[in-house]
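[Solved] Which block belongs to which protein?

Original post:
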Amino acid sequence: MELAPHDIIATTTAVGGEVAHTAREGGIHVALAAERLGTFIGIPITNTLVTSWVVMVVLIGLAFFVRRSLSVRPGNLQLVFEELITAVHTFIRDTLESDSQARRFLPLLLTLFLFIFVSNALEFLPGIGSLGFYRGEEFVPLLRSVNTDLNVTLALTVIAVVVIEVSGVMALGFFKYTSKFLNFSSPVNFFVGFVELVSEVARLVSFSFRLFGNIFAGEVLIGVVSYFVPYILPSGLMAFELFVGFVQAAIFTLLTLFFIKLATTDVEHAH
C-alpha cells in the first residue's frame, strides 16, 4: 500500500464523527466520499474498505466462536442463537410459504442483516473516524463507517436485486417472469409492465440511497453536535443512531425478503 509523503498520524478532537470531523485549522469538515488511503497493485484502498474487512473479521470470528461452542447439551449462549435463528427461519418460511425456500435464503438474509448492523454498530468504537493522518491540511481517518460510502450500499443493493431477479426466473421460468414487464397483450398490460420494469430499476436507487442517507446523515449530525455541545448530547444521539442502524439493517433485509416473495409469486395464482 502506498501512502502520500509527509503524512502524519494524528487523531481528531471530534467525538464520534468520521464523516464530519474537526479540521486542523478549526471548524467542521464533512467528507461525502470515502477517503483513499493508498493503492495496492493499482487498486484504490479506501478507509471504508478497510473497515469492511474489520467487520468481516468480526463476523467470521463470531461464527468460529459459536461453532466451537456447539454441543449436544447446549449452553445458554447456544440456546440464544438457536432460538434467534429458529425465529428468523420461521418468519422467512411463513413469508415465502415454503420451508425449502426459507432454508435457501436464510443464510443470505442473515448475512445481509449482520453485515449492515455490525457495520453500523462499529462506527461508535474508539478510533473509528478519530485515528488517522493529515494529508496537507486535510485529515484522513484510517477507519470510517462502512455504510457512509455509497459504493458499499450500492454493492449490497446489486447483490440483493440480482438475487431477487434470479429467484423470480428460477421460480417462474424466464419467459413467464419477463412477461411481468414485457406484456403486449393490451395497451393497459403494456403500461403496467413498463411501470413494473421502472420499479425494478428504481430499487437500485431506493435501496442504496435509503441506507446511505440515513447512516451518513446520522454521522454528520453527531459530528456537528459533538463540535458545538461536546460530552452532553452526543452520547444520547449515539444510542439513538445505534437503534437507527439496527432499523436500517432490518429494513434492508425485510425489503429483500418481501421482494423475493413478490418475484417468486405467480400473479395469475396469487391470492
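(Second protein starts here: sequence line, then its C-alpha cells.)
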Amino acid sequence: MSDPLHNYNPKNFWKRPEGKTGIVFLAGLLIGGGLFFVKALPTLVAIASNTLSLVVLLMGIAAVVYMAIDSKMRNLVFYMYKSLMRFITGIFVQIDPIGILETYIADLKANLSKMSTQIGNLRGEMRKLKTIILSNESQIKTNLAMANKAKEVENQNIMILKTRKAGRLKESNMKLSDLYTKMEVLYRVLSKMYENSEVLMEDVKDQVQVKKIERDAIHASHSVMKSARSIISGNSDKREMFDMALESIAEDVGTKIGEMEHFMELSGNFMDSIDLQNGIFEEEGLKMLEQWEKEGVSFLLGDEKQNLVDLAEGSNELDIDAPLPKPKKKDGNQYSDLFDF
C-alpha cells in the first residue's frame, strides 16, 4: 500500500472547515469594526483633544502594533483565534479527526461487505464466460471437421456453411477472450483492494483505539494556556502536532475509501453492461476499464496496480475457485511513524 505521508501536505487553516468559519467571522469583524470606527470617529477626536485620554489611546494603538509586529505574539493571537473558530465549527460540523476516522471505519466495513459480494458475482460471471468460450472452441473443431469431410465428398455448400460458422465462432471467441481478460483484471484488482482494505481497516482501528486514549491525555495535560506558553516560547504545540498527525491519517484513509468506492462503481457499471446470455457487451464499459488502467498510481494498490494488469494480460492462469487471499499484515502499523515528534 502507498505511504500515507506520500505527497501529503497539511491543509492551510483557511482551507479547512474551521478556516471557512474564520473567514466569515473575520469579514464580520472587519465590517463591524469599520462601521464602529466611522460612528466612533467624533468620540475619538474628542478623546484625542484630552492629553491623558490621548496617552491611553496611543498606548492601545501601540499594543495593537506590537501584536502585529512581534512574531510570537502574532502566533499566539492566531492560535487563540484558530482554537475559537475550531470550537465554533465543531458545534455544527464533524471536524474531530478521531470522530472522522471512526466514521471511516464504518464505511470501510460496509464497503468490504459490498466488495465481497461483488467479487462473488464476478466469479460467477467469469465461470459462465469460460464455459461459453470452451463450448465455442469445441464447436469450432466440430464445424471444421465437418467442413473437411464435406470437402472430401465435394459437398461445396456444406463445406462453405461449416467453415463460415467456424469463422464466426472464432471471431466471437476472440472478443469473448478479450472480455475475459478484462474481467480477470477486475477480479485481481478487486481481490487485492479487498485484501489491502482489510489491512487498512485494522490499522485504522488500532490507531483509533490507541490514539484516542493518548489524545485525551495530551489534551488534558496540554491546556490552552500551556499551549499558548509553548507558542510564546517558540516551541511547537504537541497537542496541535498530534491532531495534525491524526488529520493526515483521516485524509489518507478518506482518499483510499474514495478510490475504493470509485473502482467498485466502475466495475459494477462494467458488469451491468455485459449480457453473456446473448453474447453482447457494451464497448463503453471496456473503455472505462482501459482508462482506469492508464491512470496514475493507485493509493490503495500502489506499485501493485500495474503488476495486476500485467498478470491478467499475460499467460498467468487465474484460479477463480481459490479462496480470497488472507490479508498480509506487515509488522507494525503503517501510520505509526506519523507520531514520531
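Accepted answer:
You had them paired correctly. Confirming on the second one: The chain is about 75% helix and 0% strand.
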